[in-house]
Design a protein that fits this description.
253 residues; alpha+beta; Aminoglycoside 3'-phosphotransferase, Chain: A, domain 2; five-stranded antiparallel sheet; 8 helices; 10 strands; 40% helix; globular
Length: 253
């Protein structure tokens, strides 16, 4: 790395499983599970969308270049991106979903259903949320547990993982969860907490999206992610985050 590329070390994210640091124009991803980096490298070499350049890989560290532009937004705050940028993101996700799925296995419906049951039991036992909020969202979540045709999915398509410059997608990052899976899951994760942007996203994505299943994944994801977030020092009860998503479902018919 040249001196011009060097700079202060910024901790982007850090918890017991992995950490990401930024040094100049390079991100250093440190992960105790080497399979995550292996999947990320393989996936970025296969997908028909812009991804970061890999600088080097020396387990447990993967170094990737920063992508130009800015993220579509962050969870808990309104997205500053234009409707056209969201539509461009939808078109990029559609290209991904239309690509041949990767050869490694994804999660099965039985695994997802078991996780949903386990995490709802934990939420109820620990009184993290009112019981009626958990039960209502669990009912909504059932719509996601249906047969589907597996697609190439990103698997963790958070709003902070899609970068745009103006109305153009410049890069999609963090591919360690890529696998064959439910394409509606990607659309749901990208719009989690930003439900008002779903129409813009689907304008670019095109036909075939199931809004009821996307809504079901909003509930399922928020239910199943909450314990992990709490145990790793994140706050799912921050404004606009997972608990707000779950509570908002109570206002729907």
């Amino acid at each position: 790395m040249s001196e011009a590329a060097m700079g202060e070390v910024e901790v982007v994210v850090a918890h017991s499983q992995r950490a990401t640091l930024r040094v100049g124009d390079v991100f250093l991803k440190v992960d105790g599970d080497p399979a995550h980096a292996d999947v990320e490298i393989r996936a970025m070499g296969m997908v028909p969308v812009p991804t970061p350049a890999i600088r080097w890989h020396e387990p447990p560290v993967l170094a990737i270049a920063a992508v130009p532009g800015t993220a579509l937004g962050v969870l808990g705050e309104p997205s500053p991106a234009s409707s056209a940028a969201w539509a461009a993101a939808g078109a990029a996700v559609r290209r991904l979903h239309d690509a041949p799925p990767p050869p490694w296995p994804g999660r099965g419906l039985d695994d997802v259903a078991a996780e949903l049951e386990r995490e709802c039991a934990w939420l109820l036992a620990n009184e993290v949320l009112p019981a009626e909020v958990v039960r209502r969202n669990r009912e909504i979540a059932q719509a996601a547990l249906r047969p589907y045709r597996p697609a190439f999915i990103h698997g963790d398509l958070q709003i902070t993982h899609v970068f745009v410059d103006g109305d153009e997608v410049t890069g999609i990052i963090d591919w360690s969860e890529a696998a064959p899976g439910d394409p509606m899951f990607d659309l749901a994760i990208l719009t989690l907490g930003h439900e008002e942007r779903l129409d813009d996203l689907l304008t670019g994505y095109g036909p075939g999206a199931d809004r009821d299943v996307i809504r079901a994944w909003w509930s399922l994801r928020s239910l199943t992610a909450s314990r992990w977030l709490v145990e790793h020092g994140f706050d799912p009860d921050a404004p606009g985050c997972e608990f707000d998503v779950l509570r908002s479902r109570m206002r729907e018919p």
